[in-house]
């Protein structure tokens, strides 16, 4: 499995959370070999560790459900760190394999660097306080420049993050040469103090859609330990999973994490050899999402197909309504959720009723578990 340093903070989370100091050993870690072709990869240029035994290794990623958490705000749009922490613990208690902060659901584009660190730090501290010390945190660290992306990776480590989820740069898309994106990921992986996962999400990056060939090539880098495919291309996922011998719920494989990016194809991801999914609907119905993986791992195919249909319908409610709908559903069914930061709109009364109706089926199942 993917391995890294222990950077867990020990103080309790609070509303005025300070930024935690970086680990004194902030050089990129060596990770376990995860690819059939990784033996030919060059070692990280700035790595000082000579072996895994030289490092304090903890919180490996394991196959399953990962939730990109929502960032919560008060009515004045200041961060609501108390709710951030409570929500993280609710997800952990539901049995998720890990949590992702600073994703699209977490409104990363609406947060300052300081606020990003507050959200991740609060999440880590809340998990530790609740006894979930081993639950890993993946931190969204994508930016338009190589330099800032590396800076975000370092800040993720300092805040208690374990892995970085990185989008390709897209603002100057017409000027990118054929190998620019590959060089970007290799440069970030060389300098990041935490392992990274490639985030393939064409809708968020001007249509840039990394091919299976590109991702398999990047998987040779020892500090690139997984990918998230929100493109929804299960053929691509199958090719990457096979080429990297990805970890699955029924076998450790190489440890490479080949993740789907949406709960509506969780079963499809697992059947073709993927590792699980990082899914936004997990904010609303984490137990239901986890149950899909549990049924599949137990070989309960009739049950898992029925449940996958429920989850797919619920996921469509989340996809079609976006962050605003997800927060509205959390408010309606669980008593918290709040608002998104402007310029995202507030849900109207009519929209709130529609969202409640759209999410009702999956929430009813969630509450039955």
Automatic annotation (TrEMBL):
Listed Gene3D superfamilies: Aldolase class I
Bias (Low complexity) ranges: 38-51
Ranges of biased composition (kind: Polar residues): 1-12
Superkingdom of origin organism: Eukaryota
SMART domains, per the entry: DHDPS
Location of region: Disordered: 1-52
A Pfam short name: DHDPS
Bilayer-spanning residue ranges: none
PANTHER family: 4-HYDROXY-2-OXOGLUTARATE ALDOLASE, MITOCHONDRIAL-RELATED (PTHR12128:SF52), DIHYDRODIPICOLINATE SYNTHASE (PTHR12128)
Record's protein name: Dihydrodipicolinate synthetase
Species whose genome carries this gene: Stereocaulon virgatum
């Amino acid at each position: 499995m993917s391995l890294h340093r222990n950077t867990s903070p020990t103080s309790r989370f609070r509303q005025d959370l300070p930024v935690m100091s970086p680990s004194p050993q902030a050089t990129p870690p060596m990770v376990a070999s995860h690819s059939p072709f990784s033996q030919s990869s060059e070692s990280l240029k700035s790595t000082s560790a000579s072996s895994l035994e030289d490092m304090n290794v903890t919180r490996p990623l394991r196959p399953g459900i990962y939730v990109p958490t929502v960032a919560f705000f008060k009515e004045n749009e200041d961060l609501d760190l108390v709710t951030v922490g409570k929500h993280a613990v609710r997800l952990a208690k539901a049995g998720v394999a890990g949590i992702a902060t600073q994703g699209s659901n977490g409104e990363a584009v609406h947060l300052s660097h300081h606020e990003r660190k507050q959200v991740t730090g609060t999440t880590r501290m809340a998990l530790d306080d609740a006894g979930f010390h081993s639950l890993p945190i993946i931190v969204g660290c994508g930016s338009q420049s190589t330099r800032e992306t590396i800076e975000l990776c370092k800040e993720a480590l300092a805040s208690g993050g374990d892995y970085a989820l990185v989008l390709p740069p897209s603002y100057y898309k017409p000027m990118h040469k054929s190998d620019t994106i590959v060089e970007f990921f290799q440069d970030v992986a060389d300098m990041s103090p935490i392992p990274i996962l490639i985030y393939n999400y064409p809708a968020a990056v001007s249509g840039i859609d990394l091919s299976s060939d590109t991702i398999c090539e990047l998987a040779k880098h020892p500090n690139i330990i997984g990918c998230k495919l929100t493109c929804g291309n299960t053929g691509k996922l199958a090719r990457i999973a096979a080429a990297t011998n990805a970890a699955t719920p029924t076998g450790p494989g190489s440890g490479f994490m080949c993740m789907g990016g949406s709960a509506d194809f969780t079963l499809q991801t697992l059947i073709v050899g993927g590792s699980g999914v990082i899914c936004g609907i997990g904010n609303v119905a984490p137990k239901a999402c986890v149950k899909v993986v549990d049924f599949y791992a137990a070989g309960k195919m009739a049950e898992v197909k029925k449940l996958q249909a429920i989850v797919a319908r619920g996921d469509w409610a989340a996809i079609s309504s976006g962050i605003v709908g997800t927060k509205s559903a959390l408010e309606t069914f669980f008593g918290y959720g709040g608002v998104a930061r402007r310029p995202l709109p507030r849900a109207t009364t009519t929209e709130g009723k529609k969202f409640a109706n759209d999410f009702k089926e999956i929430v009813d199942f969630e509450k039955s578990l």
